[in-house]
Amino acid sequence: MGMVASVAILRGVRDLYTYEIPDSLSAAGPGTPVTVPLGASIAPGVIIRLEPVGGSPIQLKSIIAIDPKRPTIRPDQLALIEWFISHYLTTPDKAIQTIVGNHRLRAVAPSSASDPEVSLLTLSSLQVRTVDAIISQVGYKEFLIHGVTGSGKTEIYLEIARQMKIAGKSAIVLVPEISLTPQVSRIFQSRLGTNVAILHSGLTAKQRTTTWNQIYSGEIQVVIGPRSAIFSPLHNLGVIIVDECHDGSYKQDQHPRYDTLQVAKKRAEIAQIPLVYGSATPTLEQMFYARAGTTQLLSLPHRIMNRPMATHHISDIRDRDLFPDDSVIGRPLADALRIASAKGEKAIVLVNRRGYAPTIMCQKCRNPVTCPQCELGYTYHSDRILRCHRCFTQTPLPLRCPSCKKGSLAIAGAAIQKVEFELRKLLPESSILRLDRDTGTHANRISEIMDEFRDSGDILIGTQMIAKGHDIPLVTVVGIVGIDASLGIPDFRAGERAFQLITQVAGRAGRGELPGDVYIQTAKPGHYAIASALDHDFDRFYTTELGFRKPLRYPPFTELINIIISGAKPDGVSLWARTIHALLTDSLDPHGFFVMPAQPAPVAMIKGQTRWHILVKTMPHHTDEVRDILRKIPPPQRGIRVIVDFDPQSIL
Question: Of 271, 290, 305, which residue sits at a domain end?
C-alpha cells in the first residue's frame, strides 16, 4: 500500500494537510522540509508523519519539492513538536517556529581545538555522591539538588557535563537570566573546552545561525543559555540541567506561553535521560514532589569548606532614629557600606524597583498619576519622565494633577535611581555601579557592568538581575531595600518570591574566605517570608506556605490554567468571558475542577485593552479534560483575544 504525507504548513493554520509523495521524492519522510501547493500559492511545510493511502475519492495534491536549505527535523524533535501543539493548544507552525526556528543550513568547519589541560576542583564526598546518583541513572528520572547558596552546585554541573562528554553524550545547562550566561559559559569553556556553546537572545542573527549549525552538525556537546536553549538540536543528549529551577524567568510570557521546565521534562522523557533541577530555594511544588518521592531529592546543606552563612541584621524603616530625614539608606546599612569600602571589600544593594520613585500622587486629592493605557501607576525617573513599565509609554512629569488640576504632585517611595543618588552622596569616593533593565540594555552591556564590578567596583546596586548565581568572593555586605513592595502584590506566589529573592541575594555575601553580613530594611520584620529567609529556614517557610495554600486549593494541591480574555470593547470582553465560563462550568465535574468566576484581571487593562480572566484549578494531571473543552470553543468575535496560559507563574 502506498503512503501519503501529513504536512504541517508553516502558516497560521491548525490542521495538518495531506499530500501525495511523488516517485521523484521517495526519500521524503517524517521531518523532511518541503514546499507544497496551498490554494493558489506555494507554502513551506514539514512532513510530520507518513500514513497509508486511504479510500478517500478526493484527489490529493502532490508535494512539490524538498527544501535543501532548511534542516531535517529529527524524530525526537518531531515528538516534542507534536506534544507542544497538544499541550499548549497552538498551531503546528508556531510549535515548529518555537522549537526549530527559521534556521538555514550552513557549512560548519570542524573544530581543530583540543580540550584544555586543566584539573577539576576536588569534590566533597557529598558532591561526589550527588554526581554518581545522576550519572548512574539509566532512563528518565528527575533529580532536585537542594543546596544552600555557595554549596558547590556549579561544580556538580561541571562534573556531570564532563562525564557526559567522556561517554560521547551531550548536555544542556539552563540558566534563568541572560546576565548569568557569560559567567557560566566562561567557567564551562575553561574547564571543558571549545565545544561549549552559548545560546541567548543577545546574539546577532549571524552568531545565532552559526552556533545553531554547529550544534546541529554535532560540533557542540554542551549548550548553555536561558529559556530557548532547551530547544538546542544536540546529538545524543545525555542530561538536562536546570540551574535556579525556581526562577520565574523560565516561563515564556508571550504566545506560546510555554514553561521551560515542562518542556525540559518532556524532552528528557523522550530521550530517556536524567533531568536535574538545582536551587537553594526550589518552589513549593518542586519540593512537594521531591518529598513525595516523585523527584529524587539530593541535599547539600552546607557551603563548600563549611563556610558560614551570612549574618543578618534587620532595620525597621519605621524607626526614625535609623532613618533620619526620610533617608532611603538606614544608618546600619550605610555604616556597613562605608566600612566594607574602606577595607577594599565589595557590597551589593538590591532594590527591586526601577526608576527613581514608584509612586506619583496628588497631595490634595490623593489620586495617583496613572497610565491611561494600563491604569497602572507611572514610575518617576530621574530625567523627570514618567514611564509605564507595563506598556512602555512615557510622558513628561505634569505640572498639575490630571485629576483635580492642582499643582500639588509629589513623588513617594524608593526605587533604584533614588537609592543610587543617595549612595553617591553618602560615599562619594566609592565606585558605584547600577544594573537594571535601564542600564543593562543588552547582554554585552550586562556582562561589561558585572566585569567592571568584579575588577574595580565597590558597590553594585541592582534589581533582581543581581540576585542569581553570581559568585564574587570579595562581596561581604548585601543590602536589601524595598522588599515590602514584593509582599503586597495580589498574587498567591508573592510570599514565595520574596523568600526566594531575599535568600538568593543574601547568598551573594561571604562566598570567599571573608564572612558576610546581610542588612534588610523592612516595615514587616516579623513576616514569615522575611524571617524564614534570614534564618535560612526553608522548612519553616515551606510548612507555613503550604498551610495557606491547601485550603485555597493552590499548587501543589492543584494545577492552574489562567484563561485571559482581552479587547478594546469592555462589554464584548465581559460577555465572551462569561460565555467561556458557562461552557466550562457546564462541562467539568465540580468534584475535580474548580472554575473561579469570570472577572476583571488584577491588571485590568494593558495598552488600552480591557482584560478579564477565568482561573481554573484542576486536580493534578487532569488538565487534558480542560484542553478538550477549550479546543471546541468557537473563535471569538472580531477584536477579542483569548489566551490560555497553562502552568502560569503569575495570575495578574
Answer: 305
Q: Is residue 593 part of a domain?
A: yes
- Cell numbers found for residue 234: 544536540
C-alpha grid cell for residue 620? Answer: 493534578
Which CATH number covers residue 274?
Answer: 3.40.50.300
Q: What pTM does this model have?
A: 0.91
Preceding peptide of 75 cis, ω within 30°: no
The set of cell numbers assigned to 337 is 557600606
Q: What confidence score (pLDDT) does residue 418 get?
A: 87
Query: What is d(CA 339, CA 336) in angstroms, rounded to the nearest whole number?
Result: 5
Final residue of a structural domain among 34, 53, 73 = 73
Q: Are β-strands 359-362 and 379-380 bridged in parallel, bridged antiparallel, or unpaired?
A: unpaired
Type of residue at 520: I
Could you tell me how far CA 166 lies from the centroid of its own chain? 31
pLDDT confidence tier of residue 367, bands split at 50, 70 and 90: confident
Contact yes or no for 465/179 (Cβ under 8 A): yes
Grid look-up 546581610 returns: 518
Its domain, for residue 427, covers: 307-358+413-548
C-alpha separations of 143 from 156, 268, 291 in Å: 13, 12, 11
d(CA 519, CA 347): 11
Q: For residue 434, give the H/E element and its range.
A: strand 432-435
pLDDT tens digits, one per residue of 448-484: 999 999 999 999 999 988 887 778 889 999 999 988 8
User: Torsions phi, psi of 362, nearest 5?
Assistant: -80, 130
pLDDT in tens, 10-52: 998 999 999 999 999 989 999 999 999 999 999 999 999 998 8
Q: Is residue 320 part of a domain?
A: yes
SS3 298: strand
Q: What would the 3-class secondary structure string for 226-292 be? A: CHHHHHCCCCCEEEEEEECCCCHHHECCCCCCCEHHHHHHHHHHHHCCEEEEEECCCCHHHHHHHHC
Domain at 634, CATH number = 3.30.70.600
